[in-house]
Amino acid sequence: MCRSARGRRTGDRHSKQCDGDVSVSERSALGMSDHLTVKDQRHPRRLHFCIDGQGPVTVLFEAGLGKSRSTWALAQPLVARFARTVVYDRAGLGRSDAAVAPRTFGALLRDHLSVLDTVVSGPCILVGHSYGGPIARLAAAERPDKVVGIVLVDEVSERAGADLLRRAMAGAGALYGGQVWLARVGLLGQALRRTYFRAVEGAALREVVIESGRVPAAKAARSEWQNMIAGMHDLEATGPHVPDIPLTEITSKRSSTPEEFENDFIYQSHKATAEAAIDGRHVSSRSRNHYIQLAEPRLVASEIERMSDRTRVRYSA
């Protein structure tokens, strides 16, 4: 348990001392900022997370490849109006310590489960974007007593095929290598501001420019990419992985004709997962933007609220 350290309070910033693994350090734009300690090959490191909102259900968000909690900067505040929310930074990203080990899929899943086990005590909905989708799906299967629903935001699925994904992401190696160089010369934060996070404003934008623009964050993102395709091959060999809970897939609208939809392997992978779920739903966004949570945050929040309502009815019946 934590004890407030009175006398160290300045504006939003405050400090707490803890007897256990969790310590509260300061406030983030996305809620109260905490850390938990995990062991990584005998090297303790801290995972950063934020808690906000109240409600009978907790919503735990999982970011996509190489991204921090800030990818939820527009959707999370909407969800915090009706639920308790938890966003976090995987190792090396945001305010979390860097890891010694490579950022394999298994390592990413262990980070997620550490947060789920430590921070969430009641029924939980998992929300995963892109590469965070399979992380959320496997976590739901690992913790069936806790996870009651899942919302997947333009996820990268093993149903799409690891080789197809590798070809579709052929330029990713140069992208993530270039981001390390931009971080070293102090330009990555502003580049992210003008691209992925151009819709974000205020304190949330300041956080992402500072935190995601650092060299350790760029290296963590590169390590995640370097291990992604191998992880997808493993998931493809053992999957498909569909947890036995209500599931919603939200797909970016990259296609407009029946022929295009038929050939859109991402869309088809989402459709197949929703159809395989015990209570599946498949919806599309209005735009082609892969970052639906930043382009259409109200759509994402409304689908999470719908899931919350569905699970509340289901588990109270």
Description:
The longest helix has 24 residues, at 215-238. Strand 4 (31-40) and strand 5 form a beta hairpin. Helix 4 runs antiparallel to helix 8, helix 5 (172-184) packs antiparallel against helix 8 (215-238) and helix 6 (188-194) packs across helix 7 (202-211). The strands form 2 sheets. This protein has a 9-stranded mixed β-sheet, sandwiched between helices. It has 12 helices and 11 strands. With 317 residues, it is an alpha/beta fold. It has helices at 76-79, 105-119, 132-142, 162-168, 172-184, 188-194, 202-211, 215-238, 258-263, 265-276, 292-295, 297-316; strands spanning 2-4, 16-18, 22-28, 31-40, 43-52, 58-62, 84-89, 124-129, 147-153, 247-251, 280-284. The model is unreliable at 1-24 (pLDDT under 50).
> Could you tell me how far the N terminus lies from the C terminus, measured between alpha carbons in angstroms?
34 Å
In percent, how helical is the residue content? Answer: 40-55%
The quaternary structure here is single chain
Mean pLDDT: 90
In DSSP terms (H or I, runs of 4 or more residues), the helix count works out at 12
Q: Which class of secondary structure composition applies to the elements?
A: alpha/beta
Kindly state the number of beta strands. 11
The arrangement of helices and strands along the chain is EEEEEEHEHEHEHHHHHEHHEHH
Q: Beta fraction of the residues? A: 15-25%
**Strand order across the biggest sheet?**
3-4-5-7-6-8-9-10-11
Largest sheet: 9 strands, mixed
> Nearest-angstrom radius of gyration?
19 Å
User: Which spans of ≥5 residues are poorly predicted at pLDDT below 50?
Assistant: 1-24
Shape: globular
